[in-house]
Amino acid sequence: MSGTAPAAVAALVVSHDGARWLPVVIEALRAQTRAPDRVVAVDTGSRDESPDLLEAAFGPVVPAPAGTGYPEAVRRGLAELGPEVEWVWLLHDDSTPDASALEELLAAAEEHPGADVLGPKLREWPSLRRLLEVGVTISGTGRRESGLERGEYDQGQHDEVRRVLAVNTAGMLVRRRVLEDLGGFDDHLPVFGNDLDFGWRAAAAGHTTLVVPQAVVFHAEAAHRGLRRTALTGRHTHFQERRAALFTLLVNVRSRALPLQVVRLVLGTLLRVLGFLLVRSVGEALDELAALLSLVGSAGDVRRARRERRARATAPPEEVRGLLAPAWLPYRHGLDAVGDLVSALTDQAADVAERRRAAAAERDPAAYAAQAGARRAVAEDDDEDVPDDSSLVARFLTDPVAVTLSLVVLALLVATRAGFGQAVGAALAPVPDTVGAWWGLHLESWHALGQGTAVPAPALLLPLALLATVLGGSPAAAVSAVLLLAAPLALWGTWRFLRVAGRLVSVRGAPRWLLLWGSVTYALVPLTSGAWGDGRLGPVVSAALLPWAAHAALGFADPVADRRWRAGWRLGLLLGLLTAFTPTAWLVATTLAVVVVTAVLVVLPGARGDRSTWGPPLTAVLVPLALLAPWWVGSLRRGAAEALLLDPGRLPAAEPTGLELLTGRLGETGAPWWLGALLVVLALLALLPRATRAAVLLVWVVALVAALVALGLSWTTLDLSVGTAAPGVGAPLAVLVGALVTAAVLGAVGARGSVARPVLAGVVAVAAVVPVLGLGWAVVADDRLADAPDSGIPAYMVQRSELGPEHGILVLRGDVAGGLEHTVRRGDGTTLGEDEVLALSGEDADLTATVRELVSAPTSETVTRLGELGIEHVVLPAPADGDVAAGLDAAGGLVQASAADPGTRAWQVDRPLSTQALEGGTSALHVSLLVVQGIALVTVLVLCAPTRERRRRR
Fold it and tell me: Has the keyword Electron transport been applied to this entry (predicted)?
């Protein structure tokens, strides 16, 4: 090309929250030995200083919304280029090129004029020596193959220019004409995998991609390594990467190989899920399954993408196939993984066995020698039967119910995948950093919240604190465990309950397929009711524990008095846990106990003298009062009796209509109402079989009691300091749906021998719709759990507030015309448990009067009172009311403070801060109730255990 003008090159930098890397990237671009003719920067809604850095370096930045994918960002950048630009050099905000990178790429393009796409050697940043990629390809299982060993260092061993399937977009040099002719990058691959897909399409269209190892780019791989989270990656990076790999394979593979490819990917995904579960990587296992299910739901997009690629394909298929990974490579990776796993398990088992043998020999040498001799004798016995593990696996795989249950559990975990990590949003408040905050809130008589309050902590904090302590002191892990295990726990408990209930009405009991239907149908209640997606811990836990409580209640029918008493203690413990999460559960249980005991005493007058008949139900009702004494006594004493009827969570709570309650829905966030209506119809049909009609009528009485309690609660309105609220109906709803499921199952047991097979088959087909569609809806439904919303308070103020309760932040929202609301933030903000305390605390008259004077006619004395109340900062989050801001600007003692958001106004109180404003004493009654609670908990746990009966057997 000597004698001709050099080709114009434009560098296109796409950034998103990349301020930590951009200064180095900008400096590297300026230091290029062959500088690009123009640099275009596209920023996709960064929340840091990225746009400012790019504008200062390269001029105006092309803006894009925060959810913009990489393909759209590149298109926006191309639109800014003039027709003279022939080459486009793509760079990420976390990829810094070596000084000669562009020069080497252009030199290779001149030496190989047939090349249309060129890419550099990628090395790890910040280590700078470790190789990441020298060209990439993809295997038949969707694995990204670089041909490098793990942790391989660059020693010049891969420095030949060669043709490859694809190169990374971090440093890719591509002819503009080719990029536009191929339609750019695919929008279905917004973050990951777009380079492999583009390279595959380019090769199929007859274009050549070269890797140029002489050009070096250092890449931090921020998205892949989880160094930053975006709206596109979320918390599940592995899900996005795996979905991109599967999509790339399915849309680019040849038509005749597509069926085999689909089967291979499905089976491979299941194997990968199993492998991740074996190494306890539950998150990756669920991401694998979710990626496959996501593509199943996007079959139309796959078909359209395949048609577009066929229209552009001109190269022989054999040419493209030669650029893909060898067919044997996935099997080698599989063997390596199996070998590593077996080696690790063998070493661990050997270590454990050796420690146990050493401990046993040290404790009792004689007994250890005798046991060793016995084991040798057994081993030498030729007639000894050896269990065959393969037969157990075969039995499992040939059992449709067992396989279906396993798939249902996997689907439930996929449906609740948003519960992984820091789940917060909707009605679910953030959790504190340590479990000590929960223990403190539970044990304290006085809480430094707002302006200080003696309202007791909600009852759910004790079980949550115990669970978080067991899980290593992580409140986030405790909440995630509750959200993830609620549905599987409900499934397990319902199976056990229905199995016993079926045997009570029929000698043969309920068939396993019927137990499967009932268990799955009820296990979906936390999800289909809308409680899970709305972050309502109360109804979720209530639905999960109710089957276990019902199973314990069946013990009241045991002929042995001791077992009836034990059932009463066990039910009392479970009812206490239920009441801690949904206080109205105690109201439903008490009403049911009164109805059932009254009916028994009327039918059997002689039972009145037998305490073991009415004593266990009464015990079950009274136990929660002892277990939760600090909560309910403190609430009544502090004028917060509304706590006895409110479900935990942020207000306002859902107020379902009568139809929504009957169909098992807590509001508009639940599944379609007609799924619940089908369950009601099935429960009504269960009244027809004569054999089980009496049992079904009894279950309908339970459903009627739950419905009446819910109806009574719906007529009640609770007046709180934050406004009005409706009582919680999570517990009545769970009882109602559970009763409908039980009635349908018992009716089906009675119909097996009395209903014509065609009619029974039709009812079964209709019934199967309820769990199948409910499970499908749960997997694909959107929930409201997300990252915590921005509070609008400057970060430095938040840090100051964590120094002590006297560094409070007064937050004013609204305007003068529509009304102003005020809240006081202290510490790390309002977390789970503190929401309920603040909502039930009465209005602080002194603070309200001070705030009213502050926004109307502030004086120096007003600001002094703020300091005396323990308030250091005043914040008007965007959009700040101009009249209020002007008045605060003029107030003596308020100093204007900085705020990151241009629409937010902030001030600092320039007055002494009182350290005694939020101090409160310790209540002797509260301490006594805590002691009663601890003794009651230990006592109930001991009385629940069947130790006495076991001793008698021995």
Answer: no
